[in-house]
Design a protein that fits this description.
Helices cover about 45% and strands about 20% of the residues. By secondary structure, the protein is α/β, with parallel strands linked by helices. The chain is globular.
């Protein structure tokens, strides 16, 4: 009897498992077909008109690497009829503007920045350089906007004519760093933070120990913030040919001038020279149409956006020897780190691919990272040292940020380029552990047990004994000494020179060059040319280094991109007035999610990520 019952349940289990596998495979096939349909929907794009304006519509931030949209997000956009283009990369924007400059079909450039979120000055400077390059053709550049935020206006200022809606405004506030502090909250909820650090200015851990900013952190942050803000003002003054106090008025000047226009922000922007003309949406379209013609079907000026333009204009073919390009963007982590992070194993494979590729004569590593896991950073550095053994030159191009762990992996390069506004340095190390023994005790929960040594049992519910804390602090100090030593060796500096630039100090690219942490001020194109020069290449092509992915791997990657969906929904569910606070909290929690170092040691500059 029992054997019959066991056979019945065993058979039932097999049937259910077969049904589960069938459903899973059918869903996989359905999603695959759906993704193919979505991606093929735009293949039959209309031909380019004989005369049109190239429209640069920026959505979200300017990216270093192309973001892959998940099937769920693509489906949502398709079903809702949302035609907002996805965020674009620096390389896409620069390539399109470079091609359009000499394209007779393109009669003007239009900047539509309404949906652009705040991006770093470094990225915006590179886009600005591309706009200035386009302007050498003599073709006009228009900026059209209902309003302009600070970052949007920084790009709009490159236009020959900046148009603003009469009901709009230009909002320029300045730069700041504000973080949540947890000390009192931890005390209230009986959470014990255990912090280990080396570097007086390594301020990431301060919010867990204090309710306010330390004087050292305040001094260090104000220094580099002031440099970035001065850079912003200087560029606007030069581009718009207006006095500096029209960008950064005193509060008395602002109140007086705002009162003189009866509190009208659009008139204020016009009278301060921030914009050239106030115009309705239709008047803006007509202004561009006077240059390139009117599209009666679309009811706007003749226009082509950048993705469509790139798909219709062939890139220049270059058979010259190649300089490899690898982009490392995001927090540095080990293992399956997810999107917008630098996976040490995957990046190591890319570096090995460049080392073994006979077509690649030099390598540029583009870094846009605030750092992360010390262990992961060292694995990447080991791969780079192995690359250098091949005899091929290694050049680093720093993007918005190459700080802490980002500098760790840069230090051994043959040459380092940084933009004046790049944030780098932050040579310091910290460890952070939160334990809940007091909170559990308040709830009447107690942990007890036995172990064979004095090092067993430390953890979330038991806390950290003093001897364990001493061991961790010694490990952090060792990692800091290793950091200073590798920088000294890689940069051919004395340890005491590195120490003066270390202690967690954050530096702009300009200061980093003066300190010897950076060789040249320049952007990605300068680094590529520099790498070609080190390889003694008279001419060169650029070869992005990528690993081939199977269709299944690409689909699984897209499906995994929805890991942040719940937090996005939670933020969206908040009242509009609370969303900035919700976004700040989400960013703080996101930073904590990057803590996966196997030794609990981190080389990370969180405040750098915002700039």
């Amino acid at each position: 009897m029992w054997s019959a019952i066991k056979w019945l349940f065993r058979t039932l289990g097999r049937v259910l498992n077969a049904i589960r596998l069938l459903i899973t495979n059918l869903l996989f096939l359905a999603v695959l077909v759906f993704v193919v349909l979505i991606f093929s929907a735009g293949d039959d794009a209309p031909a380019l008109p004989a005369k049109a304006a190239l429209t640069l519509t920026l959505t979200g931030p300017v990216l270093e690497q192309e973001a892959t949209a998940s099937p769920r997000r693509l489906a949502e956009k398709w079903l809702s009829g949302d035609t907002t283009p996805p965020p674009m990369t620096l390389s896409q924007i620069k390539e399109a503007l470079d091609r359009a400059r000499n394209d007779e079909r393109i009669g003007a450039l239009v900047l539509r920045l309404q949906n652009m979120s705040e991006s770093s000055l470094t990225k915006l400077d590179e886009v600005g350089e591309a706009i200035e390059g386009f302007k050498t053709s003599g073709k006009p550049v228009y900026a059209l906007g209902d309003y302009y935020t600070q970052g949007q206006y920084y790009l709009a200022a490159h236009a020959d004519e900046v148009l603003l809606n009469p009901a709009g405004a230009v909002t320029i506030q300045g730069l700041g760093v504000y973080r949540l502090h947890y000390k009192s909250a931890f005390e209230r909820f009986n959470i014990t933070p255990h912090v280990f650090r080396v570097g007086t200015y390594k301020s990431f851990v301060e919010p867990y120990l204090r309710d306010d900013m330390s004087e050292e952190s305040r001094e260090d942050t104000l220094r580099w913030l002031g440099q970035l803000w001065q850079h912003y003002q200087d560029n606007i003054v030069r581009l718009r040919d207006i006095p500096a106090d029209h960008i950064n008025p005193s509060k008395e000047q602002l109140l007086n001038r705002f009162g003189a226009v009866d509190g009208d922000p659009a008139r204020y922007a016009l009278e301060q020279g921030l914009v050239d003309r106030l115009a309705s949406r239709n008047e803006m379209l007509q202004t561009v149409a006077e240059q390139v013609g009117w599209d009666s079907q679309a009811n706007r000026y003749m226009s082509v956006d950048i993705p469509a333009y790139l798909s219709h204009s062939a890139p220049r073919k270059n058979a010259a020897p190649a300089v490899g390009l690898i982009t490392a963007s995001g927090a540095i982590m080990s293992g399956d780190a997810g999107p917008n992070t630098i996976n040490d194993e995957y990046l190591g494979q890319l570096i090995d691919e460049a080392r073994l590729d006979a077509d690649i004569h030099a390598l540029v590593l583009r870094i846009d990272s605030p750092g992360g896991s010390a262990f992961a950073a060292e694995q990447i550095r080991s791969s780079l040292l192995r690359f250098k053994e091949s005899g091929k030159p290694l050049v680093v191009s720093m993007g918005s940020t190459a700080a802490s762990g980002g500098y760790w992996i840069a230090a051994d390069a043959d040459k380092i380029y940084a933009a004046p506004t790049t944030l780098t340095g932050s040579i310091g190390v910290f460890g952070l552990f939160l334990t809940f023994e007091e909170a559990f005790e308040k709830l009447g929960l107690h942990t007890d047990g036995v172990g064979t040594t004095d090092f067993v049992g430390a953890g979330l519910t038991t806390g950290l004994p003093e001897h364990t804390k001493q061991l961790i602090q010694m490990g952090v100090e060792h990692t800091y000494d290793q950091f200073v030593e590798l920088v000294a060796k890689g940069r051919s500096m004395k340890p005491e020179q590195v120490e003066r630039a270390a202690q967690g100090h954050v530096w702009t690219g300009q200061d980093a060059q003066a300190l010897g942490l950076v060789d040249e001020l320049g952007y990605l194109d300068d680094a590529l040319a520099g790498a070609a020069g080190l390889a003694e290449l008279a001419e060169f092509s650029v070869k992005p280094v990528k690993l081939p992915s199977s269709a299944k791997e690409m689909l699984l990657e897209q499906l995994l991109l929805d890991s942040g969906v719940l937090s996005d929904w939670a933020t969206a569910a908040l009242p509009a007035v609370l969303r900035p606070a919700g976004e700040q909290l989400k960013n703080e929690l996101s930073a904590l999610s990057h803590f996966n170092d196997i030794r609990g040691q981190y080389v990370l500059c969180v405040e750098c990520q915002e700039f």
